[in-house]
Design goal:
Blueprint: H1 8-25, H2 30-33, H3 44-58, H4 78-88, H5 95-114, E1 123-125, E2 131-133, H6 134-156, H7 165-174, H8 178-185, E3 193-199, E4 204-210, E5 216-219, E6 228-233, H9 234-241, E7 254-258, H10 260-268
Parallel strand pairs: 3-6
Antiparallel strand pairs: 1-2, 3-4, 4-5, 6-7
Helix pairs in contact: 1-5, 1-6, 1-7, 3-4, 3-5, 3-6, 6-7
């Protein structure tokens, strides 16, 4: 049997991003591993540790037995504590130790994915033991890996792959969240249309419409009279949606036409990742 065609795009996107990350970090000197990324509290080493840890869990490896320090300011929830465990346990690993473990983990995970014969709706265990479908699990890993590839690239000053398979998967992963951002979080009134116009390597325009019951939907049709249009570039969109920057920090890269107050509320709630 071969991999189900529904799963293959996520596997391809993960493979492309994880191989790019491996290529980026292999030549790093020790100090470069400590460069801060836009993930609060995480260095390049920490981001790579996170990726190694979650792929090891996907392989069925036991989680490390480790006590977290109590003074980690960025750890504010049980979910954050869960994610931090795989990171903190590797904080004193050297660059060569990191690259060796990354390479070994990628080899094991790639072999597992090449031999994947389950259906997309098969149930698997995710973070914190929560059950999810295999299709969703693979999409999340591909999304997470590409976003962290970009974190590493910005920290190292090595831009690239903004139009890779992972980038397009990330667009499709993030876009549905706009409905909740506009209709519920920003409180846009019934009958409102908000347009998000993104340019750059991944270019798209989407309209979020709020119906009479206050529910939001996202579609690609043009709105002739939107309450507000928010225009930005693809990288800024990702940084905002993934909580890497606050709207004020990239105000010069975001253009607003229409209702300024509503636009401000939308941008205030734009981050949709944990």
């Amino acid at each position: 049997m071969t991999v189900h065609p529904v799963l293959q795009p996520s596997i391809d996107a993960w493979t492309h991003s994880i191989e790019a990350i491996s290529e980026l970090v292999t030549p790093l000197v020790e100090g470069e591993w400590n460069r801060a990324t836009e993930c609060p509290g995480w260095s390049v080493r920490d981001v790579v540790s996170h990726l190694i840890g979650l792929d090891c869990e996907a392989l069925g490896d036991p989680r490390p037995i480790h006590s977290l320090p109590r003074d980690l300011y960025h750890v504010r929830s049980e979910f954050a504590r869960y994610m931090e465990m795989q990171v903190d346990v590797r904080r004193h690993h050297t660059g060569p130790e990191m690259t060796a473990e990354l390479e070994y983990t990628v080899i094991r995970r790639a072999r597992q994915l090449r031999n994947e014969t389950r259906e997309p709706d098969a149930t698997v265990r995710g973070p914190q033991g929560k059950e999810q479908t295999l299709e969703h699990a693979l999409k999340v890993r591909a999304f997470d890996t590409w976003v962290h590839e970009q974190d590493i690239r910005r920290a190292l000053g090595e831009p690239g792959n903004l139009d890779s398979p992972g980038a397009h998967l990330t667009r499709d992963f993030l876009l549905p969240a706009l409905a909740k951002v506009v209709a519920k979080d920003a409180g846009a009134p019934a009958g409102t249309a908000v347009v998000v116009d993104v340019t750059g390597p991944v270019e798209f325009m989407r309209t979020v419409r709020v119906d009479a019951q206050g529910r939001g939907t996202v579609d690609g049709s043009v709105s002739l009279g939107p309450a507000v249009t928010i225009s930005t570039d693809w990288e800024t969109y990702v940084r905002l949606a993934c909580g890497r920057v606050r709207p004020a920090a990239v105000a010069d890269q975001v253009k607003i036409d229409g209702d300024q107050e509503l636009a401000g509320a939308v941008l205030e709630h734009f981050a949709v990742t944990p």
